[in-house]
Design brief:
Blueprint lengths: L15 E5 L10 E7 L11 H19 L10 E6 L3 H9 L2 H4 L1 E6 L6 H4 L16 H9 L2
Parallel strand pairs: 2-3, 2-4
Antiparallel strand pairs: 1-3
């Protein structure tokens, strides 16, 4: 029988983020976040290369259209976050707790490429009723279509 010696050792997570700065100073305190995850026990094209490339393409396309003058800068800053799944998000929020307090809404892209093969669905969730938002209304409208 083979034996292993386990222990705790210092480590780090590389977490990639990008920002498209908003134009309205009154919206500055709260950002819109686009998130996905980079790791999985069995990484694949759908879980979660599909989410990672989706927010990359959203960021790339928006920035290109803004740079070309074909789209105005968003009023609110957009933050794009590619973190390791679960534990990486916890590490990010522990390292940068202001992220949680400065995000107005989060659009999380996980397994967006499945379609009929994996029977994946687009799910819109809202926050607690104590924090009013327009997001639950969008979810209800999508459910009823």
């Amino acid at each position: 029988m083979q034996q292993f010696k386990a222990g705790r050792h210092p480590g780090f997570y590389s977490i990639v983020t990008a920002v498209i700065k908003g134009s309205d100073p009154s919206c500055k305190p709260k950002k819109i976040a686009y998130t996905c995850h980079l790791d999985h026990q069995r990484p694949g094209a759908n879980d979660n290369a599909s989410g990672s490339v989706t927010i990359l393409e959203i960021a790339r396309t928006l920035q290109k259209l803004i740079d070309e003058g074909r789209l105005q800068k968003p009023k609110r800053t957009l933050r794009f976050i590619w973190s390791p799944e679960i534990e990486g998000t916890l590490a990010l929020l522990n390292q940068r707790p202001e992220f949680a307090t400065k995000i107005k809404a989060n659009i999380h892209m996980d397994m967006v490429g499945g379609g009929p093969v994996t029977k994946s669905i687009f799910h819109v969730a809202g926050g607690p009723k104590s924090l009013p938002s327009f997001i639950p209304g969008i979810g209800e409208a999508l459910e009823n279509t």
